[in-house]
Please model this.
Amino acid sequence: MKKRSIRFNISVSLALKVVNLLLSFGLSILYARVLGKAEYGVYTFILSMIGMADVSESLGLTALITRETAVGIHSETAQIKGFLIRTFQAFLVVSFSTSIVLGIIAFIQPNPDYHLPIIIIIIAFSTIPCTAFLKFNSSVLRGLHRIIESQLPEQIIRPLFIGLSLLALQLFISPGNVTAFHSLILVALNGIIAILFTLTLLTRSLPKDFFKVKPIYENKKILKDAWPYTLSSFLGSVIHNIDFIILGILTDNGTLGVFKIIVVGSRFISLVMYAINTVLGPSVAKLHAENKTAKLQRMISKNLVFGFFLTLPILLFNIIFGKFFLATVYGAEYTVGYYSLIIISLGQFFDAVTGPSGMILKMTKHQIHNLIANIIGAAIMITGCAAFIPLFGMEGGALAISLTLCAKSIYMIIIVKIKTGILTLPFGDLIK
Model:
């Protein structure tokens, strides 16, 4: 197969991300309308607990799997086969174990609004090994330079099929009676469809001698390379999910359903910077290796200014029209989340306009500081949620998110400046 250009892969990847965000946005509207605030709260609580298992799904190793596969699939096929077998075994063992633990926690948690029958818990947490399998396959596909195909299952196929299935369920099978239980079944079934898609691609993409060669296992090397990724991934999943879990335990499921809508809506602020980070990554690595700091600073500053002026209107829209938007799109009952939307949007905006910091640390081999940033973020998020949610409810969770985003960004701005000499702020090239 002809190798695609980097520019083509980047362009299509950006398009897929935009489509994914639109699908996620559409799904949030569909869930809010079909399930209602209370049932959507139950669904969000379960998905947040599943999200906490992200470390078991990927062990933080997706980037490492992609890197090792890309480098050695042809030159060190036996070692790579051993590496992939061991990491896949780790994925399954840890994901199944985590499924059991989180299932028990969901069964015994104290909030009566989230007491679920055992069958729902089994179906819900069976999605954790499924997602682990899917992420593993996608990571290997990226290493085999099937960049676009590796993104299709998670970015497009899974959310699209879930949305269509939910819509069909509401319109033709069980109108007005769709619950969180039905939604979780759809998530599990569509996860299996996505896995079958990636498996088909993998069998066609792996070199023929991969299936014949005897694997060589380098267990010590795998453990040495894996632990920073795993710990950072775990802390990242805590940061992204702990607010939903604490809010769900300390408040009612209706509040949690509204909060989920608010978080989804605020993510559009980060869309522009996601696109910029994706495009700039290879250039950052190249310019840093060539010690062209001044040129790198100009490139970063130019794109940050560009991103700032594209992102600012989204922030202003959320502030000025957010309440009207929530009432029109989701329903009047969701307008109670307006102030939370403003709080999170401000934090997202600050994080977005300093967004390249984390990417620069990874591209310049200072990834250990991403781990430190996640340690700081997890500590602030957990402390903030525990302190603010009992006092302020939904707005307390929003405040914890914004403080976490700002603290991580400030730390990484400082570290990037110290380690690389680059200031990741708009007009940073003008600041001496």
